[in-house]
Amino acid sequence: MPASSAHSIIDSKDLPKQTSDPLTNNPVDSSDNAKPPLAPKPNYLKLSYDITMLIAISIDLLLISLDAILMSNFSIKVASWLALSDGLNWYQNMLHIPLRTAGGFFTIFLIFELLVRWAIAIKQQVYYRWFFFPFIHWYELLGCFPQLRALRLFRAVIIGRRLYQLGYQVLPQPWIDRIKFYINLLLEELSDRVILTTIHNYRQQLTDSAMQKSLIENLVDSNRDDMEAVLLSLLRTQLVPELQKLSGKSPAGNKLASEVGNAIEDGIANTPELHRLLRLIPIAGGLIESQLQSIGHSVGENVVYSLNERLLDPELVDSLIVSVAHSIAHININNTALDTLIASIITDSLTEFEAQIKVQQWKYHDMLKF
After folding, report:
1. Taking Cα atoms as reference points, which of 318, 349, 347 lies closest to residue 243?
2. Quick check: 329 and 228 in contact, CB under 8 A?
3. How many Cα atoms occupy the beta-carbon half-sphere of 224 within 13 Å?
4. Contacts of 349 (CB under 8 A, 6+ apart)
5. What is the CA radius of gyration of the chain?
6. CA-CA to 111 of 20 to 30 Å: which in 67, 104, 188, 309?
7. pLDDT tens-digit profile of 55-113?
């Protein structure tokens, strides 16, 4: 059927959207009301075959390892030291060749079994393309070579993992926990080395002034909006309440008004010209001077109250804070002190991050308590 007609048939609002797995080419329901797939029931024939192959591969790997050890020079020296040379010679002369022959037949069986599984995968269209099989099962393909027979361990591990996911306890749970622990240990050590090397290289780049300036410019330019939002939030939560304490008849506002009034009163009292002129007025001069000082004090207080009422208007204060935050966020970064400050912050952050990476978390795991 042509592709256009196929699309016209399935293009319906009543049908759920279908996508396909790019690897296996199996349809996947991606509609909103699609139910999660149920766990497939185990195929007992395939399960039995997996268990058989797991046992066969394990025995093969055990025999390969044992043969390699017994045929090594180290085993010859140990056998000579333990007076077991006759037994080792008997093995090398009588069992070594039959075991190698049996290993060769098992390798031929693995090649045949791999080709059969490949043909089955092609027939059942398991993968999106027929030639995907050897790439996905690369460890099995390479494990057919005598020099790379250790890769057969990968298949044994994958079969064991599949059985474990189906609920079959292949290994005792303490063994599994310890294997997971050492895998995590290895991954942690490797990732730590990679991260520490990256941090070291990054520090080396920061020693270049041009690189450092470019980094700071990109860092600031890409975060100006966020910086403005943070500054605005801080000013609104920290500065506005403090300014509001000065408004009205609050203690802070009264103190500020009183100090301004006292300053004006002192200014009047410490003005010699005014003092001399008022002394020229008989009897009433001193009284007028005292009243002027009191009036000046009251004028200062009233001016402060009036200014606070006008300048601390919520809308005016908020617009002023918005302007201040915008100005600070869009400040010109061509400033040596600012560059030094940002570079210091970056360096300190890298130092703290590096210190955390150097902490080996696996040392605090219970698995180390034998």
Report:
1. 318
2. yes
3. 13
4. none
5. 42
6. 67
7. 888 888 888 888 888 888 888 888 888 878 888 888 888 888 888 888 888 888 889 98
